[in-house]
Amino acid sequence: MSVDQSPTPTTAAPPTRGPGTSPLRALLLRVHFWSGLIVGPFLLVAALSGFLYTLTPSIEPLLYRGVLTVPAAPSSLPLAAQVAAGQAAVPGAELSSVRPAPTPTDTTRVIFAAPDLGDSSHYRTAFVDPHTGAVTGVLPTYGGSQALPLREWVDQLHDNLHLGDPGRLYAELAASWLWVLALGGLVLWVGRWRRRRASARALLLPRAASGRRARLLSWHGTVGLWAVIGLLFLAATGLTWSTYAGANVTALRGAMAWDTPSVTSSTGEHAGMAGMDMGPTPAAPAPAILPEAVEAAHTSALRAGLTGPLEVVPATEPGGTTTVGEISRVVSGSDPVVGPLEGLRNSTHLDAVAVDPSSGTVIDTVHFADWPLAAKLARWGVDAHMGMLFGLANQIVLAALALGLTCGIVWGYVLWWRRGPGRRGGTAPPRGAFLALSRPWQVGVVAGTVLVAAALPLLGASLVIALAADAAAAGGQDRRAAARPTAGAS
Fold first, then answer.
1. Which of 250-254, 311-315, 340-344, 458-462 has the lowest mean pLDDT?
2. β-pairing, 361-366 with 135-142?
3. What's the rounded Cα separation, in Å, for the pair 282 and 280?
4. Mean pLDDT across 341-358
5. Which of 62, 318, 392, 458 makes the best surface tag, with the fewest CB within 10 Å?
C-alpha cells in the first residue's frame, strides 16, 4: 500500500520562489515586473518625447527662423508702435502680454488670448520686427514658455499622449510608478550583488557574462543604477504638473508658505486711503489696454533695474496693475543654447515689478533673492526638468537619462520574454509573494501603501489593487492545487 505524501490544504507550502529568495525580495520582483509591464509603454513614449523636447529649443530657431529673427538695425520703433502692429495683425483679440525683443535680431512677441485653440494655456502670438513694425508671422503658442507648434506637439505627447484628461491620468500613473520601478530595481540589483558577493565592478559596470540573458540583465541593472537619481528627480518634478499629486504638492506649498511670491495686483493697496470710509464706489469699466501704457510700464521696469528679456502683462481689471517680470533667455527663444553658468543665471534673474498704469509709477517690487527657499527649489526643479537650468549641459543630461530609460524599458521587455520556457514567451515571477511575508511585514506594506496613497493617490490605489489581486490569485492557486486528485492507496 502506498501513502499519499502530497501536502494537505492545511500544510500547503508557500508559493514557489527561487533558491535563496526572501519573501520580500519576491514581492519586490513581482511588483517591479508588473509595474514595468503595465506602465512601460507610456514611460517609453515619455522617454522618447522627453528626448525630442530637449532638442526642440535648438530646432525651433532653425525651423521658425523667418518668424523669430530679423536683420539687426541701428534703431528700433517705440514699443507702443510694435504693440499696435501686433494688434492690427490679430484684430479683436484680447491682449495677454508682450515680450519685447531682447536683442536687435529678435522679434517682439505680442501675445493674445486664444480661447478657440483650447484652454487658457493656448495663445495666438504676433511676431513683430522691432525695427520696421512688419509682422513676420502669427503662430499659435502654448504655455509660459511660449512653445511654438513643434514644441507644443511634443509637449502634449509627453504630457498626455494627445488623449486629453485620460492621457494625463495615465501619465500621472506612470510617473508615480516610476518611483517604484527605480527604487525597486535599485534594491533588487544591489541585493543580487550582495548575495553573490561580486566585485564592485559587477555592481557598477555591465559585464560580458556568458549567456545573452545574463549580459542583458547586467546592462539593465547597471544602467538603471546610474540613472536612478535622475529618474527619481524627473518623476518628482514631473508630478508637480499632474492632476492629483500636483494638487497635493500645491496644497503643501500653500500650507507651508512656500508659494512663489508675486507683486501686488491692485493699485488700491497703495492708494494711501486705507481705513477711510469713502462710501460705495461705482463700478469702473475695464481699462482699455493701450500700446502706450505697455511701453510706459516697460520703461518704468527698466528704470527700476530689471534686465534681460522681459514680459509685460497689462492690467485687465479696474484698479489693477501692469506687471513686468524678467524671464529666461531660453524661454524667450533668443538664445536656446547657453552654457551652464548662463543657464543658471537665467533661472536666478526673475525679479518683477508692479506698475500703476495710470501714472507709470512702480508701486511694488519682488526680487528673486527674497523668494522662500522652497519656491526657489521648485522653480529650479521645473527649469531642470525642462532642460533650462544649466543650458546645453542640462539638455545633454536629460537626453542621456531619456536614452537610459528607453534602453532599460526595452531590455526589461526582452528579459521578460526570455523568462518563458524554451524562450517562446514571457512568464511572470511566481504569485503569492505578499501572502508569503510575515505578518509584521504585511502590516508594514499595507501601512506604507496608505501613506503613499495620501501623497500619490493613483499610485496608492493601483498598488492596493495589485496586492489584492496577487493575494487573490495565489489563494485561488492554492485551492486548485488542494482540489487536484492525489495518488491514493493501492
1. 340-344
2. unpaired
3. 6
4. 81
5. 62
- CA angle 40/41/46 to nearest 5° reads 95
Q: Are 209 and 198 in contact (CB under 8 A)?
A: no
Share of the chain above pLDDT 70, in %: 81
- Read off the pTM: 0.79
Q: C-alpha grid cell for residue 186? A: 535599485
The contacts of residue 46 (CB under 8 Å, 6+ apart) are: 158, 171, 174, 175, 405
Q: In what order do the strands lie in the sheet with 322-326?
A: 135-142, 122-128, 108-113, 95-99, 310-313, 322-326, 352-356, 361-366
- Of 140-144, 371-375, 438-442, 478-482, the least confident: 478-482
3-state secondary structure of 140: strand
* 326 CB-near residues (< 8 Å, 6+ apart): 306, 307, 308, 309, 310, 349, 350, 351, 352, 368
Is the per-residue pLDDT at 16 higher than 50?
A: no
Average pLDDT, the chain: 82
Predicted confidence at residue 107, as pLDDT, reads: 96
C-alpha cell at 353: 515689478
In 3D space, the residue among 125, 158, 131, 155 whose CA is nearest the CA of residue 42 turns out to be: 158
Give 66's contacts (C-beta < 8 A, 6+ positions apart). 136, 137
d(CA 423, CA 216): 15
State the greatest distance between any 2 C-alpha atoms of the chain, in Å, as a whole number.
109
Quote the cell numbers at residue 14.
Answer: 508557500
Q: What is the DSSP secondary structure assignment for residue 5, as one 8-state letter?
A: -
User: Grid coordinates standing for 183?
Assistant: 527604487
Higher confidence at residue 344 or residue 355?
Answer: 355
> CB under 8 Å to 153, separation ≥6 — which residues?
none
